[in-house]
Design a protein that fits this description.
Layout: H1 2-19, H2 49-61, E1 67-68, E2 77-78, H3 80-90, H4 99-102, E3 107-109, E4 119-123, E5 130-140, E6 145-152, E7 156-161, H5 166-171, E8 172-177
Parallel strand pairs: 1-2
Antiparallel strand pairs: 3-8, 4-5, 4-8, 5-6, 6-7
Length: about 180
């Protein structure tokens, strides 16, 4: 029986190798890598990070109204971390799959240093730890508030204001900068 399994595995591997076509892959000057212990800087073909953020936010708003579903990563339904993962992937950045592990990526920024494109994190309704994540759309420093886009459990992809939403203003934990941490933004 073991010999048959080995023969089948080798046959499948050979078939896979023969079906793969050669492709030319252009490797960019800088490859974005976001790991739990790395600070990530993204430059995309000499594009300023502010342009990448604008692209990210424009893309994210195309999903407003898309339904929420726990564990879904798009494009027809999202949970909060699935949404951030999906839209960051569109600009070439790989985020971790959960909000708590996304909280270990990039560079920590204080609330008064927030910029559009930053990830913002909140306590969950049933836990003390990170339970929710969204993406900053804009910041009003004069009024100490920001708007963010996220996947709401009951409303799907929406835009909320952290200051005017009592739910989120009480649960804010912190923020991480993924794009533009130390580059030419």
């Amino acid at each position: 029986m073991k010999d048959i399994k080995k023969i089948l595995l080798v046959s499948i591997a050979v078939l896979c190798l023969h079906s793969v076509q050669a492709q030319v892959i252009k490797i960019p000057d800088k490859l974005p890598y976001i790991g739990p212990y790395n600070v990530s800087v993204i430059e995309k073909n000499n594009t300023k990070s502010s342009d990448v953020v604008d692209e990210l936010l424009d893309y994210s708003q195309k999903f407003i109204g898309t339904r929420y579903r726990s564990g879904c990563k798009g494009p027809n339904a999202f949970d909060c971390s699935g949404f951030t993962h999906y839209v960051f992937q569109n600009v070439g950045i790989q985020l971790n799959s959960s909000s708590s592990t996304q909280y270990s990526q990039g560079v920590s920024v204080s609330r008064d240093e927030l910029k559009k494109g930053d990830l913002v994190f909140f306590k969950g309704s049933r836990s003390r730890g990170i339970g929710h994540v969204g993406i900053v759309l804009d910041v009003d420093k004069g009024n100490n508030q920001f708007r963010f886009i996220h996947a709401s459990n009951h409303r799907g992809i929406v835009i909320d204001n952290c200051r005017t939403s009592s739910y989120f203003s009480k649960r804010y934990v912190g923020a991480r900068r993924i794009i533009g941490s130390g580059d030419n933004s």
